[in-house]
Design goal:
The protein is built from five helices and nine strands; from the N terminus they run αββαααββββαβββ. The chain has 173 residues and is an alpha+beta fold.
Length: 173
């Protein structure tokens, strides 16, 4: 499956997610995870209310909040510890993209701010991937209680809802 086909599938999957997010109106404790498995890549897109990661969802107001935000970004940048993948797949993380406008210098103190993190793994043997283990994510961010997952893979598309302590995302049917 080509990169463009996967991106198309993700766009198709994102529509229901966006609609669901608009209906559910930003649920604290719930994060959304889009997963796409291609011939040589695994793509992950995590969307979370900042409250689910930090305990607040606005521009940091103190040194302690700024430090917490920096720590959160550093943790999310270490995707290998957040998302456990089968080592036999030989997946190598490309530089992650993490966006949280409310945490940028000079940001306004908006309420209900969110973070979006995108990860791309290049894999030598993606066919070996059966699950993605989210234990690292759940340990690092104990405020996450629910992960709503949408998967697009060679075997089809499906949804999965994980409620703490569940942490295994199925990558094959």
């Amino acid at each position: 499956m080509s990169k463009w086909r996967i991106l198309g599938l993700l766009a198709c999957l994102a529509g229901p997610l966006v609609a669901g997010a608009q209906q559910a109106a930003h649920q604290h404790g719930t994060v959304l995870l889009d997963v796409a498995v291609d011939a040589s890549t695994l793509s992950l897109r995590l969307e979370a209310p900042l409250d689910s990661l930090l305990g607040f969802e606005r521009a940091p107001r103190s040194d302690a909040e700024r430090k917490a935000a920096d720590t959160m970004r550093a943790q999310l940048g270490q995707a290998a510890t957040m998302f456990g993948l089968d080592a036999a797949a030989g997946c190598v993380l490309q530089p992650p993209q993490i966006s949280a406008p409310a945490l940028e210098p000079g940001a306004k103190a908006d309420e209900h701010a969110e973070l979006v993190a995108s990860y791309l793994f290049r894999c030598r043997q993606p066919g070996v991937l059966r699950v993605a283990d989210l234990n690292g994510l759940l340990i690092a961010f104990p405020r996450i209680q629910r992960v709503e997952v949408q998967v697009a893979a060679p075997g089809g598309q499906w949804k999965q809802v994980l409620k703490r302590p569940q942490a295994m995302v199925k990558l094959v049917r």
